[in-house]
Amino acid sequence: MPELLPLLAGLLTIIRYTAPVALAAIGETVNQKSGVINIGLEGMMLVAAFFAMLVGLSTGNPWLGLLAGTGSGLLLAAISSWFTLSLSADQVVVGTALNLFALGITGTLYRAKFGQSGALLDVKTIPQWNGIDPVMVFLILAALAAWFLLFRTGWGLALRAAGEYPKAAEASGYSVKKLRLGAGLFGGAFAGLAGAYLSVGISGSFAENMTAGRGFIAIAMVTFGRWKPQLVLLAALLIGFVESLQYRFQSLGWNVPFQLLLALPYIVALLVLVLVGKGTLAPAALAQAYQREK
Q: Which residues are bridge partners to 132 per DSSP?
């Protein structure tokens, strides 16, 4: 039994470092199933990480920070949905603009409050019990719940119809815009939680552009997982495992260039898209604006 403890500790570490990408990817899976792709996932996570840090630092309560980060993700998702659903703006353009806005606003506010070169922040993090915190448990439950909602409920069937053949969803009495709005808010909340967990769950700090491409990796994991939440979670666990290797190698004293270790998750994500992305069947109406016929 004692020999299993290091293995269990390693698994918990992988889940912990998986959580930001996995949470964002699960939310994005539901979003894409409705026919909307959120390229602004990276920006939502970054803004959430910043405001979670800010609220957590000012109140000394990481739970309030987590709530603030989740709320900021919801707000940005609502704004993004207004552009893409009400104004029928191009989803890729809106997402790209959101990413640029997030990078600029968080950098500006961070430097304005903590100095030009930044400050060494020490934010209280979410408490753990034997290496487990509530967000890690929520991650597993959320993947199962998302699968159930998508594939075992009438709402999930309607949502999938909105992403495959919107006219069929409308003919069944559903509003495609409302379905997509609900999915977008769901994805935004998960993106906010993912970014908040990065700052008040893992690092206990904030740095400019600290998400470092995790939002884009989450989008790649949706493709890797074939738009199925349980497979998306497993795909994200692969990235978490690769990310945890840098700490494992350091503890073993291996002389591996840290730049290579930092790049490993992105290399793996790229290889996944090249090797697995071909032949995957995305929702037929993905990234296509829909206007109800008069």
A: 129
Q: Tell me the pTM.
A: 0.92
Q: What's the token pair of residue 138?
A: 């929520």
Per-residue pLDDT of the chain (294 residues; tens, 9 = 90+): 555 666 677 788 888 889 999 999 999 999 999 999 999 999 999 999 999 999 999 999 999 999 999 999 999 999 999 999 999 999 999 999 999 999 999 999 999 888 765 556 788 999 998 889 999 999 999 999 999 999 999 999 999 999 999 999 998 899 999 999 999 999 999 999 999 999 999 989 998 999 989 999 999 999 989 999 999 999 999 888 887 776 666 556 666 666 666 777 888 888 877 776 665 678 999 988 887 765
Residues 6+ apart with CB under 8 A from 250: none
Buried b (16+ CB within 10 A) or exposed e, 245-284: ebeeeeeeeeeeeeeebeebbbebbeebbeeeeeeeebbe
Cα–Cα dist 202/278, whole Å = 34
CA gyration radius, the chain: 19
Picking from 241, 276, 206, 271, the residue whose alpha carbon sits closest to that of residue 19 is 241
